[in-house]
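Tokens in:
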């Protein structure tokens, strides 16, 4: 059974226990062993990076150094955490001077970044380590071809030479569940989540444009792999109804929720009742083999 060091970050356990629960149940079915990293701090994305760049480097290098001691790759379900850890990992592996500077700081706590443990997103592990064929064998209740729009999120795809993740990964993971992937014009556009604290009007407009693009393309559901993106696209639908009188009725499901349901988990095991825009209608699209 492959072992990984699990870095949950702040947002998932605080706001999306359904993400954590569904991910852990899916990992259990696929025989992936996730061991929670202890004594780690917030990744600081994106605020700390903007205010204290060296502090952001140090806090993420510290997390990676803790993982280095264990020796397993670091897995996270959060795009923001993945982006921070991956950026710092890539920088410190390629910039000797910065690595030495950061390690000088880490030595005060007895840590050292060595670059042994690679930071990875949970969807990357599913696609690369488990594989589509192995996942397909675990599908007992495939979806009936219902149209689902994927919002990938900025930090999981950009920059590609650092993240090493391409859209095809989530596309294939979605299709193996039996869903139809809906293509829509604004698939690359930011959802506005990180803009919200500094420009609420722009953040709402970005979410509105994105939701409209998905709806017009024929999506019935949305899937995401980031808690911030989930919060933005889920919660803003309630605000748009109040502010603009627009109802999109696009349930936003975290990918492990969809995969878990297709693998036979029930709605309580994937925390379906916690989704703000009711995601219960997804149950109508499950087909028993």
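Residues out:
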């Amino acid at each position: 059974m492959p072992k990984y060091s699990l870095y949950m970050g702040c947002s998932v356990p605080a706001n999306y226990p359904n993400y954590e629960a569904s991910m852990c149940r899916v990992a259990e079915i696929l025989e992936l062993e996730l061991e929670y990293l202890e004594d780690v701090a917030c990744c600081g994305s994106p605020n700390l990076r903007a205010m204290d760049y060296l502090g952001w480097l140090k806090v993420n290098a510290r997390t990676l150094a803790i993982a280095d001691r264990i020796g397993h790759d670091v897995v996270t379900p959060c795009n923001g955490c993945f982006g921070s850890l991956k950026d710092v990992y890539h920088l410190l592996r390629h910039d000797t001077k910065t690595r030495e500077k950061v390690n000088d700081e880490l030595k005060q706590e007895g840590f050292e970044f060595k670059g042994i443990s690679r930071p990875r997103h949970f969807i990357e592990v599913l696609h690369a380590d488990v594989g589509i064929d192995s996942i397909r064998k675990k599908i007992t209740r495939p979806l009936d071809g219902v149209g689902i729009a994927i919002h990938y999120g900025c930090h999981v795809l950009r920059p590609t030479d650092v993240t090493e993740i391409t859209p095809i990964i989530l596309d294939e993971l979605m299709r193996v569940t039996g869903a139809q992937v809906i293509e829509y014009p604004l698939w690359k556009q930011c959802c506005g989540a990180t803009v919200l604290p500094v420009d609420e009007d722009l953040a709402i407009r970005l979410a509105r444009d994105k939701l409209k693009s998905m709806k017009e393309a024929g999506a019935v559901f949305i899937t995401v792999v980031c808690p911030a993106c989930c919060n933005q696209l889920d919660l803003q639908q309630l605000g748009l109804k109040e502010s603009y009188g627009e109802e999109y009725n696009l349930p936003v499901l975290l990918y492990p929720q969809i995969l878990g349901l297709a693998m036979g988990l029930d709605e309580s095991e994937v925390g379906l009742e916690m989704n703000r825009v009711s995601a219960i209608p997804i149950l109508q699209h499950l087909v028993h083999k």
